[in-house]
Amino acid sequence: MLLLQFSTSHYCRKARLALGYKKIPYQVKNLTPGLHALQLKPLTGLTTVPVLIPDSATGKAIADSTHILTFLENYCPEPTFFLAKKPQQTEASMLEDWLDESIGTATRFVYYDYRSGAGKQIDPSLFSQLVIAVVQKQYGINQASVELAASRIASCLAELSGRWQNSMYLVGDRFSIADIAAAALLSPLALIPYYQEQYPWLFERIAQIHQLCGEPLPPGINQ
Ligand SMILES: N[C@@H](CCC(=O)N[C@@H](CS)C(=O)NCC(=O)O)C(=O)O
């Protein structure tokens, strides 16, 4: 299998966690931001990564991390990350979709805002700051949208703390796509001191899930 990705994308991290959990061998191809659309559009009709190509001979390409997880579950049912009871699987799917569509975007806003301000020293190079400025413009990252994103993340973490602090799992009694989505899509917060100080349990759980899936820890989380 081949995973087309940006190495730093938290959505691509989500696909890698799923591949790792199922111990499916794969290779990655890192695309160049800016040129990626030229490669992806003809393949999937979209411009986003991750994209999974299960078999280069068929030319089939799967876009969107949610679709990739569903494909992987059908391709390799064990170990499963779908829950046996239908209401629980529905709850896990809803959490996964919310984390994808709302929270993954919110972490991007807060992360890039931090990287261009208080966290500039992480990489003050002209190139890095230029990339960050382009991303901020592309997604409309400004003071108002960052405040909105931060309040979404606060609500999300209040919800997750009730779940992850009482159980190893966000839904039911087994590891699910909700745990994978949360571990990947909240991981950019690990570089921001405020979140490290306020939510130590979050980064412990993110680290455990990365270990379970055989994926290197995200920047900002140490062994
Ligand atoms: N809902 C999508 C979101 C993926 C996404 O936003 N990917 C970003 C990188 S983090 C991307 O490819 N951006 C480039 C673009 O939109 O052209 C998924 O789950 O795969």
From TrEMBL:
**GO MF term set:** glutathione transferase activity; maleylacetoacetate isomerase activity
One Pfam family in the UniProt entry? GST_C_2
**Name of the protein in its database record:** Glutathione S-transferase
Question: Per its UniProt record, what Gene3D superfamilies does this chain match?
Answer: 1.20.1050.10, Glutaredoxin
Indicate the segments forming the GST N-terminal domain, all copies. 1-80
Q: State if Transferase is listed as a keyword.
A: yes
Which lineage ranks, top first, belong to the organism behind this chain? Bacteria, Bacillati, Cyanobacteriota, Cyanophyceae, Chroococcidiopsidales
Q: Which UniProt keywords apply?
A: Transferase
What's the superkingdom here? Answer: Bacteria
GO biological process terms, alphabetically, are: glutathione metabolic process; L-phenylalanine catabolic process
Question: Which organism is this entry from?
Answer: Aliterella atlantica CENA595
Keyword match Transferase: yes
